[in-house]
Amino acid sequence: MIAMAVGTAPCDQASITMLGPGRTVETVASSDGRITKADMLQYEEDEGPCLDAVWTNGVFEVPDLAADARWPRWTARAADLGIGGLLAVHLYTDTALGALNLYSERPRVYDDTDLEAARIVAAHASVVLAYTRKTQDLWRAIDTRNLIGQAQGMLMAQYKLTPDTAFAVLRRYSQATNVRLAELAEELTSTGQLPELDVLRARSDGSPHSD
Q: Which of 32, 52, 67, 186 has the least CB density, counted as fewest CB within 10 Å?
């Protein structure tokens, strides 16, 4: 996707800022280390066209970075990286995904053709990112389910429990300790035990009881 952006969009270098959990942002792809640094400076300063593009449905044009006063802290630092201009385009499908960042090494006047090319590349990037995120979420859910299943199996073997009761033990422990089920399952499968399980486990029918 980055190669496509550099080859067809009005830019010399490109990067993708992706929106993550808790409104976090990160650069997930970049054509050059300087561009990754330029993105990181925006995250550090909490200002810049790429960040604005993440939160706003539109295109942010920076024809001459040195003459732009909208993001003074970031502009002063980014100019030292040899950046002259930039287009930042919002990425989204049914929800915001991030921003496509199209960097130019010299100041550049963007015309309607440039803006349309940037939007087309951004549309393709949005589809790819949405598919990637969906696939990652699916595999993450499968991995979590398998991990919880393994933890259930360990409790069943150790305490002679039924599957439903083993899951109830995990759920009660999760509620009592305020720790997510997936984290509990990971700890149990990694260490073979959970702290104070005998004290905190469920007291429902069929549950193991302390002597």
A: 67
Structural domains in the chain, CATH included, are 2-132 (3.30.450.40), 138-200 (1.10.10.10)
Q: Scanning the structure block, which residue is given the tokens 């990754």?
A: 36
- 95 dihedral zone (left: phi>0; alpha: psi -120 to 50; beta): beta
- Read off the pLDDT of residues 128-186 as tens digits, 9 standing for 90 and up: 888 877 776 666 777 788 888 888 898 888 888 888 888 888 888 888 888 888 888 88
Distances in whole angstroms, Cα of residue 63 to Cα of each of 77, 85, 123? 17, 5, 22
Contacts of 95 by beta carbon, 8 Å cutoff, 6+ apart: none
- Burial (Cβ within 10 Å: 0-12, 13-18, ≥19) of residue 121: buried
- Average pLDDT in the 56-70 region? 94
Q: Which amino acid is at 135?
A: T
Contact status, residue 103 vs residue 83, Cβ threshold 8 Å: yes
Q: Is the pTM of this model over 0.70?
A: no
State residue 135's pLDDT score: 76
DSSP 8-state code for residue 196: T
Burial of 177 (0-12, 13-18, 19+ CB in 10 A): middle
